[in-house]
Amino acid sequence: MKPEEIAPTLAALPRGARVTVSVDIDDWRRACEARNGGPEYAGASDVAQLLGFSARYWATRAKAGKIPGAVQDAARRWRLPVAACREHIRDMSNAPAPRSSRALAIVRGKARVPNKVAP
């Protein structure tokens, strides 16, 4: 049965009829959010293909709490809100680059930290 046929079919049932439907709660929540214009969720590998980086990167960020709204489904796979992932990338690009007080110097093929502090 097509989704658009469900409502008319249910409406045609006799009064007092009972219908039982089983739905995975995570699927239900995502469907409700999508219908209400809420966050669009995707798996870590899908986000990696869409926005770059690796699936492992996104899963690690989600586990660390860096992606608001990220949840694990029943199979322990990460479901990430795409909008939050885009914002994470935007925040990364706006963050100042870390500044090192010391610079590496290559001396005879070996990396060494000089004694003087770089300005």
Model description:
With 119 residues, the chain is an alpha+beta fold. It has a domain at 25-94. It has helices spanning 3-11, 25-35, 44-51, 55-63, 82-94; strands at residues 41-43, 71-72, 78-81, 105-107, 110-112. A three-stranded antiparallel beta sheet has the order 1-3-2. It is elongated and about 70 Å long. It starts with a helix and ends in a 7-residue tail after the last strand. The relative contact order is 0.10.
Secondary structure layout plus pairing:
Elements: H1 3-11, H2 25-35, E1 41-43, H3 44-51, H4 55-63, E2 71-72, E3 78-81, H5 82-94, E4 105-107, E5 110-112
Antiparallel strand pairs: 1-3, 2-3, 4-5
Helix pairs in contact: 3-4
Summed up, what is this model?
With 119 residues, this protein is α+β, with helices and mostly antiparallel strands. Helix content is 42%, strand content 13%.
